């Protein structure tokens, strides 16, 4: 089991460019999440999904979009990159919130927008 | 509003000494609490959770946490710290807003634990 895999590991974007952060998991988890981590701020939820075809906004969704066409994949799209989106992005998945099963995290994508 | 606070940005402890990383929470209803650890350039790893039952929860790598309802705290502890425990630690609470449990977590700001030899 690879767990949760994120690509790329690092990326530098210019203001106004777009990109997709990839996330895939091989644990057959229905629940997936995107968080961003900023120093001293903890992790903030961007978007989440409770199953294929179902997504919803988290705490900080502005400037981002997601899709969930399969159980395995949950890509995060930045359409017009801004310096405020410089951050480390983490994808996570879980088996069943009903059992309070823990989140499994990928190793992150470090994004710099200049 | 639900929230989690970690009052210390950094905790320094000597190897072999006990360690405590503090966490307080604010939720309506029963809390579901978690501790995660993050090593450099890695994702977060689950350490332990409190759902119900015993107030002392045991987790991975010799860590434990004490749930205190009256003080709304969930402090992480270890009897004897190792240099390899040095990492960033996050406390989190299940976000129970909305009509269903979607598994969302609200994280604290994180506490850097530095264990010196």
Structure, explained:
- The complex is a heterodimer of chains A (114) and B (117).
- Chain A is 0% helix and 51% strand.
- Chain A is mainly beta and 114 residues long.
- With 117 residues, chain B is an all-beta fold.
- The chains are: A mainly beta (114), B mainly beta (117).
- Chain A binds chain B through residues 4, 31, 33, 35, 40-45, 48, 50, 56, 58, 90, 92, 94, 96-98, 100, 102-108, and chain B through 4, 9, 32, 34, 36, 41-46, 49, 51, 90, 94-95, 101-105, 107-110.
Rg for CA atoms of chain A: 13 Å
Distance between the termini of chain B: 41 Å
**Which assembly state applies to the chains in this document?**
heterodimer
Can you give the mean pLDDT of chain A? 94
Tally of DSSP β-strands of chain B = 12
Most extensive chain contact?
A-B, 28 and 25 residues
Largest sheet of chain A: 7 strands, mixed
Summarize the structure.
Chain A is mainly β. Chain A has strands at 4-7, 10-13, 19-25, 31-38, 42-51, 54-57, 64-66, 76-78, 87-94, 104-105, 109-113.
